[in-house]
Amino acid sequence: MTTASLTIVVRSTEIDVNGHVNNARYLEYLEWGREEWYEKAGLYYQVLRDLGVLTVTVNININYRKECLQGEKLTIRTFPEKVGNTSFVLRQEIANASNEICIDARVTCVTVDTETRKSVMVPGRLRELFSGK
């Protein structure tokens, strides 16, 4: 199984009036983590287009477990969880420098035909990332 890890530092522009990372920023962090996962797997945007598909996020379930503050070093980890016919689920977590889980999420994506914009079977090259082959 292909997993990915990305380390970031919380910037002042990501903090809200409560003095911690704004909840919407975590969605951005998770997106960065997914992009890292695709890149680590060699599935860059153009590669997916060459396969005739796009991947579209259709659902994100996120649990906010611990606040994160400006200057903190965070690690975004992405793991393939399950693959279906036309969709797949990635599990993601954001941990602080003490390896405490601050955020965990499950993200469902659908593979969509680049021309028709309709859901299609997950291509083999993407499917393999869930089997460890």
UniProtKB/TrEMBL annotation:
CDD domains: 4HBT (cd00586)
Family according to the record: Belongs to the 4-hydroxybenzoyl-CoA thioesterase family.
Keywords annotated in UniProt: Hydrolase
UniProt GO molecular function: fatty acyl-CoA hydrolase activity
Any Pfam family: 4HBT_2
Domain of life (superkingdom): Bacteria
Protein name: Acyl-CoA thioesterase
Record SUPFAM superfamilies: Thioesterase/thiol ester dehydrase-isomerase
